Amino acid sequence: MATLGFVGLGTMGSRMAQRLLDAGHSVVGYNRTREKAKPLVDRGMRLADSPRAVSTAAEVVFSMVTDPEALRAVADGADGLVAGLRPGAVYVDMSTVSPSATREVGAAVEARGAAMLDAPVSGSIATLEQGKLAIMVGGDPGVLERVRPYLAAIGPTITYVGPLGLAVTMKIAINLSLGVQMLAFSEAVLLAEKGGVPRERAVEALLKSVAGLTVLREGPPSVRGRLLRRGERGRDRAVAFQRGRGAAAPGPSRRDRSAWGRSSGRRESRSRAVGR
Are 37 and 45 spatial neighbours (Cβ–Cβ below 8 Å)? Predict the structure, then answer.
């Protein structure tokens, strides 16, 4: 089995690394807060002192971080993972970051004689643990085939999108779609409730109908009022706005939803706000 690296062992990253361990791979990992990696160490992962130490030891390196700044923090510099990549190695970033940040890091990876794929995911903690995570991939299709078995250990549904940066572009588009769908779902509940239908029954009926959202049906109970943490949604919304402006795709539904939130004084998460 190959030696794989994983940088960023948070809520999603730790579970991805665990699935690689469960598949029989040797995994060396790094997390800024070392204590959070202890459960993985107890299960056989080797903990490194820096991202560079991970990439020096591994043939394929994965990362899962929060935003473009975090990506640059683990990739760049003397102790960054790019500095440790050997010629022919593969770096797979599974974070939801901006396409420009992805391509920026990709250029540095290429200069090392290595290859980079962007492979953001669609799904929740539950779908990851159940082995149902969907993965979108951008980069060289030949490189994808080299690492496909490792990605399949994380999630079985793998869709090739195109050159580097297009997978995160697709992920941003999916997040935008989910936000607009959540708003429409909430408006439908409100209409039914104002017409006399109890809220709980309105939600139940909608979930069982063709208008039901998979993210609501299959997520944990709390997802109906609060799908994701505030920071994640705010980050993705900002990336979507930036990408939409750059691609001349204004997204009126996205714009109107955010304008409504500001005018209503809503600073909480997207789904909590529309649920009100």
Answer: yes
Topology (CATH) of 3-163: Rossmann fold (3.40.50)
> Would you call 38 a catalytic residue per the annotation?
no
Distance, C-alpha 170 to centroid of its chain: 11
Whole-number Å distance between alpha carbons of 64 and 161: 19
C-alpha 20/C-alpha 6 separation (Å) is: 10
Residues contacting 141, CB < 8 A, separation 6+:
160
Closest CA to 276 of 263, 261, 254, 262: 261
The yes-or-no verdict on residue 274 having pLDDT over 80 is no
Residue 166 near residue 191, CB atoms below 8 Å: no
Token pair in block for residue 101: 């940040």
Domain 169-275 has CATH 2.60.40: no
Q: How confident is the model at residue 273 (pLDDT cuts 50, 70, 90)?
A: very low
pLDDT (tens digit, 9 = 90+) per residue, 220-241?
454 455 433 334 444 555 555 5
Q: What is the pTM of this model?
A: 0.79
- Of the listed 36, 132, 171, 194, which one is catalytic? 171
Q: Per-domain residue ranges for the chain?
A: 3-163, 169-275
Cβ–Cβ under 8 Å, residues 98 and 243: yes
Query: CA-CA distance, 174 to 184, in Å (whole number)?
Result: 15
Q: What contacts 24+ positions apart, CB below 8 Å, involve 229-238?
A: 229/269, 230/268, 230/269, 231/66, 232/66, 233/179, 233/269, 233/270, 233/271, 234/269, 235/66, 235/67, 235/96, 236/96, 236/172, 236/175, 237/175, 237/179, 237/270
Cβ distance 4 to 150 under 8 Å? Answer: yes
